[in-house]
Amino acid sequence: MARDIVVNIAACGEANAFYDLDDQSVTMCTEMTGWLDTIGQELGLK
């Protein structure tokens, strides 16, 4: 069954993301941006 999922952005203190089963939402940590940028550079995507 398809349904909308809320995606929250928050500082978590680590590069990570979490799924909250009770709220049926995903929290993307702001620290992931630096990590994703580093991975992109290592892969030559930037």
Give an account of the 3D structure.
The protein is an alpha+beta fold and 46 residues long. It has one domain (6-42). Helices cover 24% and strands 30% of the residues. It has one helix and three strands. The protein has a three-stranded mixed sheet, with no helix packed on it. The N and C termini lie far apart (37 Å). The mean pLDDT is 93.
Number of helices: 1
Low-confidence stretches: none
Number of domains: 1
Mean pLDDT: 93
What fraction of residues sit in β-strands? Answer: 25-35%
The number of distinct β-strands equals 3
Q: Could you describe the largest sheet, including whether it forms a barrel?
A: 3 strands, mixed
How far the N terminus sits from the C terminus, by CA atoms, comes to 37 Å
What would you call the structural class?
A: alpha+beta
The gross shape turns out to be elongated
Strands of the largest sheet, in order across it? 1-3-2
Please provide the ordered H/E string of secondary-structure elements. EEEH
Q: In angstroms, what is the radius of gyration? A: 13 Å
Helix content: 10-25%
